[in-house]
């Protein structure tokens, strides 16, 4: 099976700071790939290169290629808005718009030109169902998104991403602000979502990486030190630095 | 950053593998000594001590579970704990084989000896020696030594062949010896199985060191 995303000799610079160093990595379709590593290792920066989220930071520079279905997303003619529709993102802190639940989910499709109310309602329901939030909110879709609990807000943000029917979902520490029960719900949801989506997750929580992902990449000082099946990385890592990090002897 | 407390527990766990190993090794020697010297008291002691071995194994299993739950071991640490979980089962089973030999010694009691025992004590000596060295290899993470010990299982199989053939001759010549000879074959079988268990331990050593599960050397029996 061809990889969904291929990063090829990718380098990223914040001014003079070389944050991602020559990373080559394939993301498999309909599977979860976890990126782990200590703070400042470049894993989040790398994640954000996959939908050009770093473009908005002034003074940064990218070298190398990121291929999405064989197409380099850094080519001049690529429409970044279209790219971010295909490669959606969920952030560390749930960030619903200060609008109703319905409006939060309908926002993306509306921006993309969907106007018919019936169709919008369908998309909202479908997305909320896929995000495992529908049953909890269906009776009050006009309630503010901000009135939901943290875990619900994060699922709302996932629903908002799903509403624009992306192919890939990037998750940057999606559970670090959530309690354990909400965390498990999101993890369960991620497994469900792999039927239709490819997921890349950055997490500080190694046990979460071990629980949810099929592939794991370990970053250190901007380098991809080790990349392989999660079960192998966590039971028989090949690099001493990976071993030290995941056994908690790092630093 | 060292994980001092976890590492101490991990060391203690491995020390306890050595303790359990020496209990089992002693059981092998004592059971064959009891048989050879017709020492019924010693045989009863081996049977009684087997309960302690079983108990110790459960205690260690509990400790492994506790470490998994509280420390979430990964990579090399995880492999050590998984290996310990397997090794203690093998040790406990070898203990059972020794207890089996002791029970045969009790069964034989004061019946007239069929023949002086030579090869069976030799098998016991060899099996005990392999056991001790396999645990040394575990502690020292010596996959090469583990592989070599596995190869020595052929010696045990050879001795077992010899014991079997000799006892068969006795039985063929004089059917009145069948009961006594059969019991001695059981003893040989217990020792042969014990050495096989040692090769399992050796496979665990290789797993701890390399992360690979491989069958090293297949026993004839």
Descriptive account of the structure:
The complex is a heterodimer of chains A (251) and B (221). Chain A is an alpha/beta fold and 251 residues long. Chain A has 10 helices and 10 strands. Chain A has a domain at 5-96 and 168-246: Rossmann fold. In chain A, 36% of the residues lie in helices and 25% in strands. In chain A, helix 3 (101-111) crosses helix 4. Chain B is mainly α. Chain B has one domain (4-210): Methane Monooxygenase Hydroxylase, Chain G, domain 1 (Up-down Bundle). Chain B is built from 7 helices and no strands. Chain B is elongated, with a radius of gyration of 19 Å. Classes of the chains: A alpha/beta (251), B mainly alpha (221).
SSE layout and pairings?
The complex is a heterodimer of chains A (251) and B (221).
Chain A: E1 5-14, E2 17-27, E3 32-36, H1 43-49, E4 60-68, E5 71-72, H2 80-86, E6 87-90, H3 101-111, H4 117-130, H5 134-137, H6 150-162, E7 168-172, H7 180-193, E8 198-202, H8 206-212, E9 215-220, E10 223-229, H9 230-235, H10 240-246
Chain B: H1 4-37, H2 40-71, H3 75-108, H4 119-139, H5 143-151, H6 153-173, H7 178-210
Helix pairs in contact in B: 1-2, 1-3, 1-4, 2-3, 3-7, 4-5, 4-6, 4-7, 5-7, 6-7
As laid out across the biggest beta sheet of chain A, the strand order is 6-7-8-3-9-10
Number of helices of chain A: 10
- Identify the overall geometry of chain B: elongated
Average pLDDT confidence of chain B is 95
State the low-pLDDT regions of chain A, or none: none
Mean pLDDT of chain A: 94
Helix content of chain A: 25-40%
> How large a portion of the residues of chain A is in β-strands, by DSSP E?
25-35%
Kindly provide the name of the CATH class of chain B. Answer: Mainly Alpha
Tell me which CATH architecture of chain B applies here. Answer: Up-down Bundle
Strand proportion of chain B: under 5%
In CATH terms, the superfamily of chain B is Phosphate transport system protein phou homolog 2, domain 2
Order of helices and strands of chain A: EEEHEEHEHHHHEHEHEEHH
CATH-wise, what's the superfamily of the domain at 5-96 and 168-246 in chain A?
P-loop containing nucleotide triphosphate hydrolases
Percentage of residues assigned to helices of chain B: over 70%
